[in-house]
Amino acid sequence: MLDFRLPSEYEDLRKTVEEFARDEVAPVIGDYYEREAFPYPIFAKMGQMGLFGLPFPEEFGGMGGDYFALCLTLEELARVDSSVAITLEAATSLGAMPVYRFGTDEQKAEWLPSLTSGEKLGAFGLTEPGSGSDAGALATTARLEGDEWVINGTKAFITNSGTDITGLVTVAAVTGTLPDGRKEISSIIVPSGTPGFTVSKKYSKVGWCASDTRELSFADCRVPAANLLGTRGRGFAQFLRTLDEGRVAIAALSVGLAQGCVDESVKYAHERETFGAKIGTYQAIQFKIAEMETRAHTARLAYYEAASRMLRGEPFKKQAAIAKLVASEAAMDNARDATQIFGGYGFMNEYPVGRFYRDAKILEIGEGTSEVQKMLIARELGL
């Protein structure tokens, strides 16, 4: 018989992160969000808790957990704030995971201990101003000169790329031409502070205002040939694997935001009075919140299945796309409904639902748009 209850080790982790989000993040994150400031003290505490090392082996400073543990953590953080959740997601699944999955023993030894402890953050340099969903249109180049890669190009919308604790950016670049005429794409580790590597000022964003997102440029940026991540020409396959996993993580984050909208709406429905009664007594409000809970619940089951297939080593591309599509739409719909329930207060940034509304839309865009998810699902069905 199927049992959807979380095993005790997962439930204990979930409760620990839930308490941290409620007691440590919720009271202060609004101020960081308003100032568009990066909450370094929060991430220092998360590092001490071992959250950045959850899915990595202990030999690299990790906690010896798995990707599902990371997803549970992202969900609980996003119930309170998505800026904090996306910083952890990007640092772990996009920043450190490629080094762990594809790096040499020397690269793992050099980078993973600081990334898994949260002492340093990693970033994933794939998207460019002229290529988002069409990653095959990559224009950044890297040519091998002696024992160095010389990188030229621009990256856009890169999370965790310009903080005071950013350690590296893994850059996807064209390194040659394949026999069939297609671009040879490879991944190269570029440490922060490398000459020729310029980080722009922070973007002015609609949401995720307490996270770090920037444009990066590379002008004859030289790094050692040994900074090639994995096999030359395997960069495309590497970031496809990275994005498949990342979509499960974004689905979990989206579920957290969707559930946070339910949490806040239920609380408000018990407090707010109109026409002499609590608004929670009105069927219109009850039905709206019931629909919100249904979306969050359904999306949670979707990412649970995708994560379980991933951990069993089974194909999960379709399930990851389904989870990401369903969960991001649930987050957007729930944020809109929660804002409606709160009325004018929902339009104020001091209330969490105001932040949720601003944060939700990017979930239908980042790490593959909803349209890309539908394309992947159709392709997996043989269409």
Automatic annotation (TrEMBL):
<protein>
    <submittedName>
        <fullName>Acyl-CoA dehydrogenase</fullName>
    </submittedName>
</protein>
<dbReference type="InterPro" id="IPR006091">
    <property type="entry name" value="Acyl-CoA_Oxase/DH_mid-dom"/>
</dbReference>
<keyword id="KW-0285">Flavoprotein</keyword>
<dbReference type="InterPro" id="IPR013786">
    <property type="entry name" value="AcylCoA_DH/ox_N"/>
</dbReference>
<dbReference type="Pfam" id="PF00441">
    <property type="entry name" value="Acyl-CoA_dh_1"/>
</dbReference>
<dbReference type="InterPro" id="IPR046373">
    <property type="entry name" value="Acyl-CoA_Oxase/DH_mid-dom_sf"/>
</dbReference>
<feature type="domain" description="Acyl-CoA dehydrogenase/oxidase C-terminal">
    <location>
        <begin position="233"/>
        <end position="381"/>
    </location>
</feature>
<dbReference type="InterPro" id="IPR036250">
    <property type="entry name" value="AcylCo_DH-like_C"/>
</dbReference>
<dbReference type="GO" id="GO:0050660">
    <property type="term" value="F:flavin adenine dinucleotide binding"/>
</dbReference>
<comment type="similarity">
    <text>Belongs to the acyl-CoA dehydrogenase family.</text>
</comment>
<dbReference type="GO" id="GO:0003995">
    <property type="term" value="F:acyl-CoA dehydrogenase activity"/>
</dbReference>
<keyword id="KW-0560">Oxidoreductase</keyword>
<dbReference type="InterPro" id="IPR009100">
    <property type="entry name" value="AcylCoA_DH/oxidase_NM_dom_sf"/>
</dbReference>
<dbReference type="Pfam" id="PF02770">
    <property type="entry name" value="Acyl-CoA_dh_M"/>
</dbReference>
<feature type="domain" description="Acyl-CoA oxidase/dehydrogenase middle">
    <location>
        <begin position="123"/>
        <end position="221"/>
    </location>
</feature>
<dbReference type="InterPro" id="IPR006089">
    <property type="entry name" value="Acyl-CoA_DH_CS"/>
</dbReference>
<feature type="domain" description="Acyl-CoA dehydrogenase/oxidase N-terminal">
    <location>
        <begin position="9"/>
        <end position="119"/>
    </location>
</feature>
<dbReference type="InterPro" id="IPR009075">
    <property type="entry name" value="AcylCo_DH/oxidase_C"/>
</dbReference>
<dbReference type="Pfam" id="PF02771">
    <property type="entry name" value="Acyl-CoA_dh_N"/>
</dbReference>
<dbReference type="InterPro" id="IPR037069">
    <property type="entry name" value="AcylCoA_DH/ox_N_sf"/>
</dbReference>
<keyword id="KW-0274">FAD</keyword>
